Amino acid sequence: MIVDQAKYVHGIRQPCGDLSDELAALRECPDEPSFLWIGLKDPDGGEFDLVVDELELHPLAVEDVRKGGQRAKIERYEGSIFVVLKTLRYVDATSDIETGEVMVFLGDRFVVTVRHGDLSPLAGIRHRLEQQPEVLRLGPVAVFHAVIDSVVDNYLRIDGELQADLEAIEAGVFAGDKDIHSERIYLLKREVLEFKRAVGPLRRPLTALASPGSPFGDTEARLLLRDVADHLSRVIDHIESYERLLTDVLHAHLARVGVRQNEDMRKISAWVAIAAMPTMIAGIYGMNFDHMPELRWHYGYAYALLLMVCVCAVLYRAFRRSGWL
């Protein structure tokens, strides 16, 4: 459905009538900083078809909007730019990353924002921009920058939360915390990979838009996008370091688990050896052969018990000195 639509003239919001008529009127005044902003959420066939027909959106981009679930990307068509952004939310309780989607059409005197799901609210961005007419005078690119800047700022927040979780796991592994399990490390690694899939594809096209030769020329908009591109690059660099570090932490954790298992096996083996000696002695004297002098000796029973105790004590002392117990 169409959530909101408006016309902005000199940065001031005005009512918007028929889209094609309004757009034609705006294009007749090329020197006037004005544009249309149409916001849609989970667009249905009828409303979206109306916007597509009135604004003549590119069919390939329209197909991506209809299908949803697209890879993050920035594509340039003749006369317009189409952007797919992944919006993310980090769930502290489970360390999961939930994903939403925002799509932006940026054209001559118009911008269309489309969001899928509830993880990509844009009402706050529109309200904030309407309080800054001087920013809206930059045209549709001001909206494009505000949307992508908000999404990347959220990436920075998630980056910080992932870093905190990673540091906690790393400290727990090397401190021997038994509450740290391989599953927890693996789940965090999976979330980092999902974060990487959402963020990584934007790096090259966003850098191209912020570089000399971009469709925005040497305007202030290009400088603003360059700042966003720098933030995005920092997030991606962090993600790559997290991925490597989590792999190392997982290997370290498995190595410590192996060491603990070896220590446990040594202790078990030592106690089994100690327990085996009394069993062996009792088995020998339990055979009751007539020629065993200890069987007819008055103190034979005490002698056998004392022998078991002495042998066990010697073995226990030997295992303690070797570090097995």
What does this protein look like?
60% of the residues lie in helices and 17% in strands. The protein has 325 residues and is an alpha+beta fold. It folds into 2 domains: 255 residues, CorA soluble domain-like (Beta Polymerase, domain 2, 2-Layer Sandwich), CATH 3.30.460; 64 residues, Methane Monooxygenase Hydroxylase, Chain G, domain 1 (Up-down Bundle). The chain has a 7-stranded mixed β-sheet with strand order 2-1-3-7-6-5-4, sandwiched between helices.
Write the layout of secondary structure elements.
Elements: E1 2-9, E2 12-14, H1 19-27, E3 34-41, H2 45-55, H3 59-67, E4 73-77, E5 80-91, E6 96-107, E7 110-116, H4 123-130, H5 133-136, H6 140-174, H7 182-199, H8 203-209, H9 220-285, H10 293-296, H11 300-322
Parallel strand pairs: 3-7
Antiparallel strand pairs: 1-2, 1-3, 4-5, 5-6, 6-7
SSE class:
alpha+beta
CA gyration radius, whole angstroms = 35 Å
Separation of termini? 71 Å
| Major sheet details | 7 strands, mixed
CATH-derived architecture of the largest domain = 2-Layer Sandwich
Number of strands: 7
What is the strand content?
A: 15-25%
Strand order of the largest sheet: 2-1-3-7-6-5-4
- What is the molecular shape? rod-shaped
State the domain count.
2
* Name of the CATH first level of the largest domain: Alpha Beta
CATH T-level fold name of the largest domain = Beta Polymerase, domain 2
- As residue ranges, the low-confidence spans are none
State the helical fraction: 55-70%
Q: Look at the structure and give the mean pLDDT.
A: 81
Number of helices: 11
The secondary-structure element order is EEHEHHEEEEHHHHHHHH
By CATH's scheme, which homologous superfamily of the largest domain applies? CorA soluble domain-like
